[in-house]
Design goal:
The protein has about 170 residues and is mainly α. The protein is built from 3 helices and no strands.
């Protein structure tokens, strides 16, 4: 064996090796890289579809959230309106009840004053009659004669005026 044969380059061997390398690259490309690229493309498409679905689901969730928040706001507003209406109604009713009570109190007071005035007049008239009778008897006994009705009226009025001035 020669040392020189190990280091030398044979052109036919080089061409065969290059041809063999080219064939291997073509086979690897066709049977290995192409299916791997297809699998990777399918995985990428699947991942993109899942990301799109997730984005769509997120948008739907945000839409539902905004609708929910809007409906909650409307419910709060409606509840506040109902509460305000109830408060106004209660306030109006209480004012109406107070007005009615005041009106009743005024009418009761006026009726009581009228009754008192009527009773006072009645008592004064009764006292007038009694005093008049007593005054006539006393005057008749003091004067010793009979008093006519005009004298009687005059005496009664004088006596009542004096009693009214003292009280």
């Amino acid at each position: 064996m020669k040392v020189q044969d190990l280091v030398t380059i044979d052109p036919w061997t080089l061409i065969a090796q290059l041809l063999n390398l080219f064939i291997q690259v073509m086979l690897i490309k066709k049977f290995l890289f192409k299916p791997i690229r297809e699998v990777l493309a399918k995985r990428k498409a699947l991942a993109d579809a899942e990301l799109a679905d997730a984005a769509k689901a997120k948008e739907e969730a945000e839409s539902l959230k905004s609708e929910y928040e809007e409906s909650m706001k409307q419910a709060r507003d409606k509840a506040n309106d109902i509460l305000n209406t109830a408060q106004k109604s209660a306030s109006q009713q209480s004012e109406e009840i107070i007005r009615e009570a005041n009106a009743q109190a005024v009418s009761i007071k006026a009726k009581a004053e009228r009754d008192i005035e009527q009773e006072r007049r009645k008592a004064v008239n009764e006292i007038k009659d009694e005093i008049g009778d007593m005054a006539m008897e006393i005057a008749g006994k003091v004067i010793g004669r009979e008093i006519n009705s005009s004298d009687h009226e005059k005496l009664i009025d004088d006596f009542i005026n004096k009693v009214g001035e003292e009280s």
